[in-house]
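Lecture notes, unit on binding sites. The following record was shown on slide 14. It pairs a sequence with succinic acid.
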Amino acid sequence: MQVTPLGPVLGAAIGGVDLAGPIDAATRAALRRAFADHQVISVRDQHLDAPRLLAFCQMFGTVRPNRVRPQNYHPDQPEIYVLSSDDIDVFGRNQRIAQGDYWHTDQSYNERPAIATCLYSVETPREGGDTRFIDMYGAYDILPAALRARLEGRVAEHVLIVNEPVFGIAGAPASTSPPATAPVHHPVTRVHGETGRRALYVNPGTTVRIVGMEKAESDDLLAEIFARVIVPELEYRHRWTRNEVVMWDNRCLIHAATNEVPADQRRVMYRALIEDVAQAA
Ligand code: SIN
């Protein structure tokens, strides 16, 4: 198995593996190591159907169906969610949407968020449809010490508003639509169980507020954090090829789909979400 970094920030291309076949213990361990080291792994030219993708993802943890939009479940395999550039928003506007086209972490609105997300590209457009990632280890590391001290021991509240970000940052107005989930709390920073590194765990998609602060103070602090960390120096942007598997680590990344697929082209992805256990601060 070969592991080749995808750029200076994060990500690695994996070569020499066939994810459709049986994966031996040594390859499994090497994949897990690459995933922990690089945060995003990409494996091109894989020929998977929904059951095979599910079997691969189950090597990393438990896969459960998404909580919302059951209309997107794969018809034979509900744990696999089908993301399509033909998807229409849920607010009756009948607009084509790119689900998750704002910075977020998958399922931080759950008590047990997804530790990892796996996407498999069934159809790719000739242009557009990239996925963007921000390194949240690096984000924590670049925060000034005084700001980090203000975050120490804090928890934040997260909810889901389907297909819209809860927190407005430049270019993405805050949603005024009602949440689809009850609020849950997670530590603002977390130590990754495998790497031992501390990462920031707030995102504009689902983080409503920092608990125990006045709303204005919390809004100002979150806005300052997002302005400092959503920067090109911490970003990796993934350009997709067809039949590619990409798995990313939600414990140390935020990500955003891009809504730039031309109207005459399609992007179809199979997605699996791999579940975490509850975290201590
Ligand atoms: C997601 O936000 O989970 C999907 C990202 C993408 O479609 O690029």
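Take-home: The pocket of succinic acid is lined by residues 83, 100, 106, 117, 131, 255, 257, 269, 271 (CB under 6 Å).
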